[in-house]
Amino acid sequence: MMTTNDVAKVFDTIFSIPGMNEVVKIDLKISRKNVLLLNHVIERGLTAKGDDKSSLFLTSIPQENLQELKQFGDEFLQKAGLIEFSEKLSSLSDIGK
User: Fold this and answer.
1) CA distance 82 to 69
2) What dihedral angle (degrees, nearest 10) is formed by the CA atoms of 97, 49, 80, 75?
3) pTM beyond cutoff 0.70
4) What tens digit of pLDDT does each residue of 34-90 get?
5) Which of 6, 68, 72, 81 is most buried, by the most CB atoms less than 10 A from its CB?
6) How many CB atoms within 10 Å of residue 87?
7) In the 8-state DSSP scheme, what is residue 47?
8) DSSP code string of 48-91
9) What pLDDT is stored for residue 9 in this prediction?
10) Residues 6+ apart with CB under 8 A from 57
11) Residue ranges covered by each domain of the chain
């Protein structure tokens, strides 16, 4: 079984392949529901804490890349006109904690 360090090395190798830093244009049409879900998954993944392998793997990713993912989620919400709605949903989930 691969350790978290092994997984990080594999992803680091993949990320260093020539062309991986090239910008690509993606024309994507998804429902507002899926925009909300995608943003939630991004935020949840970026704030994951604990000893599970996915959160340990995130520690090996440069902060710059993690911030870019966060910006993608925010941009998706903005383009879908869901920023205020998402903030209200987040405040509701904060109340339940």
Assistant:
1) 17
2) 130
3) yes
4) 999 999 999 888 887 655 666 666 777 888 888 999 999 999 999 999 999 999 988
5) 72
6) 11
7) T
8) --SSSHHHHHHTTS-HHHHHHHHHHHHHHHHHHT-HHHHHHHHH
9) 86
10) 4, 7, 8, 11
11) 4-95
Residue with the two structure tokens 């830093």: 21
Task: Give, in order, the Cα–Cα distances in Å from 5 to each of 9, 23, 33, 46, 66.
Answer: 6, 28, 35, 19, 18
Q: What is the DSSP string of 20-37?
A: TTS---------HHHHHH
C-alpha to C-alpha distance for 97 and 89, rounded to whole angstroms:
13
Q: Which two tokens stand for residue 97?
A: 């904690």
**Contact assessment for residue 81 and residue 36, using Cβ atoms and an 8 Å cutoff:** no
Label residues 27-57 b or e (16+ Cβ within 10 Å = b).
eeeeeeeebbebbeebbeeeeeeeeeeeebe
